Amino acid sequence: xxxxERRSTCPINYSVEIFGDKWMLxxxxxxxxxxxxxxxxxxxxxxxxxxxxxTEKLNTxxxxxxxxxxxxxxxxxxxxxxxxxxGIELVPFMVEFLNWGSRYNPNGGPKxxxxxxxxxxxxxxxxxxxxxxxxxxxxxxNPSDAF
Length: 147
Prior knowledge:
Elements: H1 11-19, H2 22-32, H3 39-43, H4 51-63, E1 67-71, E2 79-83, H5 85-88, H6 91-104, H7 111-119, H8 121-141
Antiparallel strand pairs: 1-2
Helix pairs in contact: 7-8
């Protein structure tokens, strides 16, 4: 297990060392908002991450305990990446990032989710977190029901 060598004990530094590049935030976006959880699904994203970079970033998320990797119940040669509770705790941060980006990006963002956030941000965050927990639970505890 490769660990990140920390430059300091500063909490912001800790966060930046994990999430300080675009790929990590885009992987979190895909896990949280786009329902993606396999290597090929991540590769199919519009941003065109390379296989080597994707492998490196997924391994970092695994090593940091933000995602867990399970064997697909439908295909034993396929792995699925699911957010852990530590990863699910990042939902409020990602919602704020999404909200800020949609406000200043002329192309907007996912309208249905943004409308939910605007109407009741706290409820939208709770629903997202509950859905992610349910998804993880269905994959890990009832594999036959997951697909």
